Amino acid sequence: MTTKRAPFIVVEGLDRSGKTTQTSLLQARLEKENVPNRLLKFPDRTTTIGKMIDSYLKSTSELDDHVIHLLFSANRWELASTIENLLNEGVTVIADRYAFSGIAFSASKVEASDATVPKLPFEWCRAPDIGLPAPDAVLFLDIAPEQARLRGGYGDERYEKEEMQARVRQAFKRIGEEAEEGTLWVVVDAGSERDVVAEEMWGSVEALVQRGLTAPVGRLWKDRVL
User: Fold this and answer.
1) What residue ranges in 50-208 does DSSP mark as E strands?
2) Looking at the domain assignment, is residue 29 inside a domain?
3) Per-residue confidence of the chain (226 residues) as pLDDT tens digits?
């Protein structure tokens, strides 16, 4: 008999795209369907590394751009073995943000003197996450930055600036176009009604969740290892 494992589902999106709400609704749907599951949120702000990240995001501390990027990556690596073990035990894992956010946000930072010059090269930003467990599906909640700005709480954290979000959106587009073979990348219109978005997300992963997978857990960008 072939052993099956559970899928790894990542929910990504711009700030204020409704990502946290939709992730919770997806988990509730899994519960309704009696699917064993675990929800992870990145950054995990409860760990020692996560607390440093939280302070930075709330602009109560300053860190070099290279340092904060590596801290975000380290925060994901803290849970890498946990993710793989859960999947192999038949527990569907949902992640609220993952490595793709790390790349998109860091690669979107620009020099103050010239907004066309990135502070950190795209490939440098990708490198620390090479080898992490690869998701089987990525649901990207897409919303125009000007639309997201109208939602409550916008601007509370460091990256919630419209021009920054526009660059992040383009970076996510590139990441989606370069998605790993075997990874389903779905762009969801986050500007739609909440229940419409929730149904589209569930429809995108329902078959994956119900049938399980026989292939081992993949690795992010394994073909880029030097």
Assistant:
1) 92-96, 110-111, 114-118, 137-142, 184-189
2) yes
3) 568 999 999 999 988 889 999 999 999 999 999 999 999 999 999 989 999 999 998 889 999 999 999 999 999 999 999 999 999 999 999 999 999 999 999 999 999 899 889 999 999 999 999 999 999 999 999 988 777 666 555 455 555 578 888 899 999 999 999 998 889 999 999 989 999 999 999 999 999 999 999 999 999 998 876 5
Tokens describing residue 116: 């066309």
- Give the side-chain half-sphere CA count within 13 A for 216: 2
Does some domain include residue 1?
no
Domain that holds residue 107: 8-212
Q: How far apart are CA 150 and CA 18, in angstroms?
A: 12
Residue closest to 97 by CA, chosen among 85, 86, 105: 105
Number of domains in the chain: 1
CATH label of the domain that carries residue 52: 3.40.50.300
